TrEMBL record:
<dbReference type="Pfam" id="PF03129">
    <property type="entry name" value="HGTP_anticodon"/>
</dbReference>
<dbReference type="GO" id="GO:0140096">
    <property type="term" value="F:catalytic activity, acting on a protein"/>
</dbReference>
<dbReference type="GO" id="GO:0004821">
    <property type="term" value="F:histidine-tRNA ligase activity"/>
</dbReference>
<dbReference type="Pfam" id="PF13393">
    <property type="entry name" value="tRNA-synt_His"/>
</dbReference>
<keyword id="KW-0436">Ligase</keyword>
<keyword id="KW-0030">Aminoacyl-tRNA synthetase</keyword>
<dbReference type="InterPro" id="IPR033656">
    <property type="entry name" value="HisRS_anticodon"/>
</dbReference>
<dbReference type="InterPro" id="IPR004154">
    <property type="entry name" value="Anticodon-bd"/>
</dbReference>
<dbReference type="GO" id="GO:0005524">
    <property type="term" value="F:ATP binding"/>
</dbReference>
<keyword id="KW-0067">ATP-binding</keyword>
<dbReference type="InterPro" id="IPR041715">
    <property type="entry name" value="HisRS-like_core"/>
</dbReference>
<comment type="similarity">
    <text>Belongs to the class-II aminoacyl-tRNA synthetase family.</text>
</comment>
<feature type="binding site">
    <location>
        <position position="114"/>
    </location>
    <ligand>
        <name>L-histidine</name>
    </ligand>
</feature>
<feature type="binding site">
    <location>
        <position position="128"/>
    </location>
    <ligand>
        <name>L-histidine</name>
    </ligand>
</feature>
<keyword id="KW-0547">Nucleotide-binding</keyword>
<dbReference type="InterPro" id="IPR015807">
    <property type="entry name" value="His-tRNA-ligase"/>
</dbReference>
<protein>
    <recommendedName>
        <fullName>Histidine--tRNA ligase</fullName>
        <ecNumber>6.1.1.21</ecNumber>
    </recommendedName>
</protein>
Length: 434
């Protein structure tokens, strides 16, 4: 029997994982600058947490959810997205309480699960980096969240990003629009795809999001939601645009964009990029928006929220395609070469001592000849080699060599064990110490 990973999942091997770490660490630093703190929630939740919030007609609930009954007959689901679980945690732990200064700003990173047809940048287990901010309805916060998404992606040196925005307005605006949309779509009912027929009366906005080509043709003539925004909603959206302009963040308005989840209100946005590596045309890598009713829906007080989710896999495909340089994070400071079996104890002591001084150090564990050990040191790009042969062992010294300059010095082993930092500054210059 040969075992294979489940369809739509990926093994992230060490060379690739290094890049992931770099992306995640960069995101952590940036989120810290914006004062967002990490939150970690369970990978599975009660099915209802997602079905209630995403909407019965959403792709997620109708087709994509990994749900199951556990041994206690509870209906559970692997999380298909991050927001619902974060909001559930927010409510359950009463983060809306007066002791938490508002807005409450959090971020998360982790696996999400959707039963989809796997392709480039689309998997069944995938990873998102996401943020949520609760407790402010100010357009300034909408703009902060969008700016942060753009900032993060530009930090990685990506080019050709396009920020697309729209507004779904508040509940009243949406209700007015909903009726107008039904009135427009009803005469086309017979031409619509099966999915859209079902959605037309349950959730007509979703028809705008249809991936069916013919549906998309029909949708082109539909009324625009922007014409149905009431005064407050219009004011909010105008201010968002004004602030984006003021921050010189370019954007385009797409009045047909609705997003796949039911809980959005007011500003919604997607950051897209046109890259062949992810298929024809523009692909969304980061998406989000305001969800002013969601906290209440999950049993909390009335409290506005806004956030985004960014797909790690798509980001990695894009960075690869745009040949973004990843900094080397795994520098090997020293490789300790032992010549002859009797040096094994000393080399082990030195390696351990270097590590406890904060240096990345390694040695041979396969009893290999000196030549093979030096070759490894070279291959691993070690900054220094520390060599002990028979004569060094007798003299209780080691040969320390800078691989950059070729300079070699003989140093008492005791000095190395004492503090390798001191050895470096005593015998080598700045250029040799990276
Ligand atoms: P799409 O229209 O491409 O299916 P979506 O609207 O379902 O996207 P969201 O729920 O908004 O996606 O998720 C936000 C981001 O998460 C997406 O922009 C994408 O980068 C990523 N994402 C979503 N589904 C997947 C998946 N199956 N595999 C990899 N990344 C995904
Ligand atoms: Mg989807």
């Amino acid at each position: 029997m040969r075992y294979q990973r489940p369809k739509g999942t990926a093994d992230i091997l060490p060379d690739e994982a290094k890049k992931w770490t770099y992306v995640e660490e960069t995101a952590r630093m940036l989120f810290n600058d914006y004062r967002y703190q990490e939150i970690r929630t369970p990978m599975f939740e009660n099915f209802d947490v997602f079905s209630r919030t995403s909407g019965d007609t959403s792709d997620i609930v109708t087709k994509e959810m990994y749900d199951f009954k556990d041994k206690g007959d509870r209906h559970m689901s692997l999380r298909p997205e991050g927001t619902a679980g974060v909001v559930r945690a927010f409510v359950e732990n009463k983060l809306y309480g007066p002791e938490h200064p508002r807005p409450i700003k959090v971020f998360y990173m982790g696996s999400m699960f959707r039963y989809e047809r796997p392709q480039s940048g689309r998997q069944r287990e995938f990873h998102q980096i996401g943020v949520e901010a609760f407790g402010s309805n100010e357009p300034e916060l909408d703009v902060e969240v969008m700016a942060m998404g753009m900032d993060l992606l530009s930090h990685f040196g990506l080019s050709g990003l396009k920020l697309t925005i729209n507004s779904l307005g508040d509940q009243a605006s949406r209700a007015a629009y909903r009726q107008a949309l039904i009135d427009y779509l009803d005469p086309h009912f017979d031409e619509l795809s099966e999915d859209s027929k079902v959605r037309l009366h349950k959730n007509p906005l979703r028809v705008l999001d249809s991936k069916d080509k013919h549906d998309q043709e029909i949708v082109k003539g539909a009324p625009s939601i922007l014409d149905y925004l009431n005064e407050d909603s219009k004011k909010h959206f105008d201010q968002v645009k004004h602030l984006l302009d003021a921050l010189k963040i370019p954007y385009v308005i797409d009045p047909d964009m609705v997003r796949g989840l039911d809980y959005y209100t007011h500003t919604i946005f997607e950051i897209m990029v046109d890259s062949k590596a992810l298929g024809e045309g523009y692909t969304t890598i980061c998406a989000g928006g305001r969800y002013n009713g969601l906290v209440e829906q999950l049993g909390g007080p009335e409290m506005p929220g806004i956030g985004f989710g960014l797909g790690m896999e798509r980001l990695m495909v894009l960075m690869e395609a745009q040949k973004v340089k990843f900094p080397v994070l795994d520098q090997l400071d020293a490789y300790v070469v032992g010549i002859g079996e009797q040096t094994s104890l000393e080399t082990l002591q030195i390696v351990q001592s270097l590590r406890s001084d904060g240096f990345a150090a390694d040695r041979d564990y396969l009893d290999r000849k000196p030549k093979a050990q030096f070759k490894t040191a070279n291959k691993l790009n070690a900054q220094f080699t520390i060599t002990i042969g028979e004569s060094e062992l007798k003299a209780k010294t080691a040969n320390v060599k800078s691989m950059a300059s070729g300079k070699e010095v003989t140093v008492p082993i005791s000095e190395i064990l004492q503090d390798f930092d001191t050895v470096l500054t005593k015998y080598f210059n700045d250029k040799e110490i990276d």
